[in-house]
Amino acid sequence: MSGVSVSVEHVVGNQISKGLPHYFVELGDKDITSFETQNSLYRAEDYDHLLFCLEERWQDGDSAFDPLFVPSFDIIIVLFTLITVSDHYKATVLTRNEPYNVNRVSYSKRAIKILRKYLRILQQFDTTRYGTYKLELLRCQMFLAIETVNPHFKYLQNCRSVKNSTNENVYYKPDAMPENIIRRGIVNPYRSFISCVETKNPIFGNIPVNFKLSQRGGLSNAVLWTLANSIQEDDLLFHDAYEIWIPLFDIFISILEIRQAYFLENEIVKKISKELRIQKLMESPICQFLSFVDSINFNPLFCEYVFVNCDYTLINRDAALTIQPVYKGETQPTEVYYQRVKYTKQFKAKVSMRIRRRFISLCFNILGSVPTGLHLPKPRIHKKRLLVEMSRTLSTFQNIVEFEEFFTFDYEEFMFHLIERTLYELFKQDRRTIVTERPSLISGKDDLKTFFNEILALFKAGAFTPDVRINGLPPHEIIDNAGHVKNEKLRLQKIDVCICTILRNVLQGQAKPLLVDCKKLLIKVSKRINIANEKRLEIDTAFPQLKPFIDSFI
Fold first, then answer.
1. Which of 353, 369, 385 is the last residue of a domain?
2. 0.70 cut: is pTM over it?
């Protein structure tokens, strides 16, 4: 991503006298014509030809230099909004608009494909193929569009309601968010063409999504609506999240990551004091986006948001989060809609945990830029407190499928720290107090011998064996100090998942000579697994994943 954040050959916003965003790029004559053409199709509500206009330019990729057809920032906002026009509740309106469109791909899916294509082009930043000017112009339009998704108001008193007797941590309001929205947040920086989004009618009944999310509590509600429904048993609600909001927020986060990298590279002076750097970081795109969470209690509240509707133990929660549909009719399928796919719990958990990790990654993206010894005052993100809050929540997960899918990830540095702290929380639930200090597995992962010796020490201490010192109770039901029933089998299963994940990410990709040097240690770990398995038979559990995995390297 270095090219997209470094290239500033055509930006003019860094000229202070212009008062424009740093990344701003002026339009050429051909681009003005292109933007006006796109806006004309939008005003005429000819969405099919608008999308076709954006799609067909990719078919001409045989030439050595393939010029890039750049959408204007307000057309990108239109694409964001078209994603929300899903067939399951808009089929009647869509059919009325295109009565003969019976076999083609939906507007929603086409918009997602187009935006992801443009994102890949930006991330690759191939100047040989597209030219520096076109890529910087595309980057400018993407940045202008994402900065209109701005939480002007945080979730305040209206975000909670009294819990009912079912112990649910989410209260669903049947009515959609209000439509009487003050449209603000878009200022067209170009004088050479007129932006059409601010004056145009709704798109198939949906007002532009940036206005929707920028109203009071709009972004907070949309995030909660997405995450809560991403793990829903109700297939219609899951379908709504899967088809609309998960792809949309995934695209938002990808653009924000590029925008943040550009901000850090070009909009913060390198040699400034730590205190001034903190002040500048509070103005960064990700900090602005994360302000939808109450900054005073950011760490526990963000944790509650990001794990909403997951199956875990709520502590000291006397109120439920209140969420409601973002657009009217989302929960009311049309008569012609038919659910063709039956989603499995495993699939739902996989989809849900991936988007949750994406939101968490935003926090650690900004934390990686905070100078040592200082903390962000707004939003008040504290790395250690956030890790502790999330690891404690994860350690109380009651659904092993959700837990396992959350820790199914490709290499992400922050996830290693989270999994290590979660492992420690699980060890702390053992009443024998075998493990008294947090394991240092992550710090030793670059030295395999140190890493395996740390794991062997945990095995020798008995950290992977069940606590069966209970009189008069079955060994798989243990009363802990708080008086809750603890499932020892589930605790050990979660420990297995943590260790398997750490080992998989550490060992895979290691050079063969390094693994040969550690063969004796691997054999010792395998033997220790056998010993632990014998003791685990007392509660009818074993290492189903770890032993075959270790043995494959011996």
1. 369
2. yes
